[in-house]
Each structure stands twice: as structure tokens, then as C-alpha cells.
Amino acid sequence: MQELDGLIQHYAWGSPRALPEFLGREADGTPWAEVWYGAHPLAPSTLAGGAGLDQAIAADPWRTLGDGVSRAFDERLPYLLKVIAPDQPLSLQVHPTREHAAESYAAENAAGLALDSPHRNYRDDNHKPEMLVALTRFTAVCGFRTPRRAATILEGLGTVLTDRLHSLLVRYPTAQGMRAAFRTLVATSMRPPAAAVEEVVQACRDRYAAGCSPSPRIDRIVSLLADHHGGDPGVVAALLLNPVTLQPGEAMFVPAGTLHAYLEGVGVEIMAASDNVLRAGLTPKRVDAEEMLQCVSVAAAPPLRVAPERQNATSVAYYAPVDDFELSVTTLADPPGVFGRRHPVPGTGPRIVLGLEGEVLLETDAGRQLLPAGRAVFVPAADGPLRAGGEGRFVQASVP
């Protein structure tokens, strides 16, 4: 196994404090949004000695990935592990299916669009299902409500825009009605003006202050989104979505096509190795509403929470319904400074292990490595079973 340095992403919505504290680094006043651990070609992690993880895998896929993973995923690491720390709301977004991503990526390549072109939507040919495990209280909106429930949320706000949406959902209380309502908010030809959005925001604030809201939480979210993205129709779209709050240790899975936006908190996120994001709003980045509407699912569904399953005395696993990844959390409570005990850590294949708290000693038949909080290691498939001792907590990304 080898130490692994993640790549910091300084997006504008990131917290200036949370990730520096987690990584044991000095804050510099800039937003630290994400740290990536993986081999995605846009931002590969670096192994001790300076080689990129992508380079190490390409040089010896059978040792690093193992025979099964190498064959199944075309000699590529199929997952990307992140720590994410939004201090402000992220964009309202969806991720494509694998089939749609492959087709669209090929089309953009054929059109001669460079990978860093501002006109490009697809940076790779992969899908991007993802799962988030909260490290702190974490809030989001995710997935559409039922049309009737959304109509109840809209009823009584008394604005031109919400009356129009309410009428649509009452007349067509179906997925098609929800798609029509959402389309009127984000499609280029129907996008409402900023003044109409601000009228809805004020109505939500007034309703919340009066204590008569059918969903005080979503009214607060609308107000929060408007503080950061005033006039953006994505603010109104939040009224159609489910609010989500995750407490530390709780997890949520986001499949392809699910409309969502993370709002605030710190979490560990694992996903298929992709950077394909189609945005509907709430961002200064590229928004392609027509392409996003091709991929979004408007079926009413509650957020998909994933309960941890006990693997052994020290580890629990979060199993997502995909073949690309799984995530486990191991908590050790050996006496301080005692590393003589060895606890088995379930998992095989290529693994990334990230320290969350304390300090543990990791061991395979190939060697040992101390893992303090905020540091990561890559464990090749050829290293075999992993054992650990010490006092601390860590996550392990692996392949089912």
C-alpha cells in the first residue's frame, strides 16, 4: 500500500475552514470545496513518490485492480472518493445514465469539442451514481415530490408563477404534469423572469413568518437559495423537491437522473468515476436545460437512504445498488498507542482508505502503514486482505 494525496477543488461554494481542518492544513481564506481521491483523468490523485494513481494503474492493472475489476471496468478504477464541504448551495443538477453519457461523449468528441471546452457537457463516457455519508449535519434537496403534495406546497402562495404551477399539477397529477411544471421553470423558451422568482421568494418568507406553511423547511430552503442565487428559477424548483437532512453516519444514494442539490455540511461522497454533471440552475457554471431535461427523472420518489449493515465487530458497510463502488466505515477502540491488535477489515480488490479520526495502523501481507486522520492510502488488489489496529475511525472505498 502507498500514501495517496488527494486533489483539492476550490469551487466557490466550498467552506474556507472545514476541509483545511480535516486535512490538518492551514486555511488560506479561499473556499475548499472538495478533495478527490481516485484516478479520474481530470484530477488523478498522487502516490508517494510523485506518480499519479492513474499512471500506476495503467502500468500494472492486474496488480493494482485485480483480474475481475480490470476486466469488468476496462482496466480503470471504477470509483471516485471525495470529501465534500459545501458552505453554500451547489447547483441543481442531474447525472446521466451510462448509455446516454457514452453516446453524448462520443458525439461531442466527433464535433471536435475539447475536453475543457466551455460548450461541453460530457467530460467522460461514464454514468455518475453517487452516495453521500454525512460527517456533520448535512442538508440537501433530492428527487421530486408527488404532484399532489407539491400542489399543496404551492397552494396559497398567491403569485402568478406558483398559481401557474399549481394549476398544472392539479389538472395533471402525474409524472407528465410534474415534467411540464419543471419544464416551465428551466426551459430556455419558458424561463420566468427574475422578478417573478423574487415574488415567490417573498411569498415563502411571508408564509414562514406567519407560521402557516405546510412545509416550513422548504420555505427556509427557498429563502436560503434566494440569498445566494436571487432571481434564478431553480429557487422555485425547490418547492417541487424533497428536503433532506442527514445526521452524522446517515447516508443517501443518488441514482442517475435524480434532480438534487447539496446545501450545507461535510460528508464523504463516493461515486462512479465520472465528472458528468448536467445543471438546471443555481450556478454561474454552464446550464444546458434542454440536455438536462433529456436525462432527468420526474417520477415521485423519496430520497434513497442507505442504512449501514454490520460486517463484523468493528466495520459497517453502505451498499449502493451499483457495481462500481461500496463504502465501509471501521471504528477501532484499542488502548491509546497500542497497535498490537489486528482487526480484519472486510473488502478486496483496489481500495482507498481514508482516516477520519485518531490514528490506526494498517497492515497487509505486503506491508504496514500508519494512517492518521485526514490522510489516505491506496491498497492494491495484489496486497490481499487488510487488517487494522489502533484507536480511530476510517472509511474504505472498494468494489463489490
From TrEMBL:
Gene Ontology MF annotations: mannose-6-phosphate isomerase activity
Alphabetized NCBIfam families for the sequence: manA (TIGR00218)
Entry keywords, A to Z: Isomerase, Metal-binding, Zinc
Classification of source organism: Bacteria, Bacillati, Actinomycetota, Actinomycetes, Micrococcales
Protein's UniProt name: mannose-6-phosphate isomerase
CDD domains assigned: cupin_PMI_type_I_N (cd07011)
Reaction(s) catalysed by this chain's protein: D-mannose 6-phosphate = D-fructose 6-phosphate
EC number(s) from the headed UniProt entry: 5.3.1.8
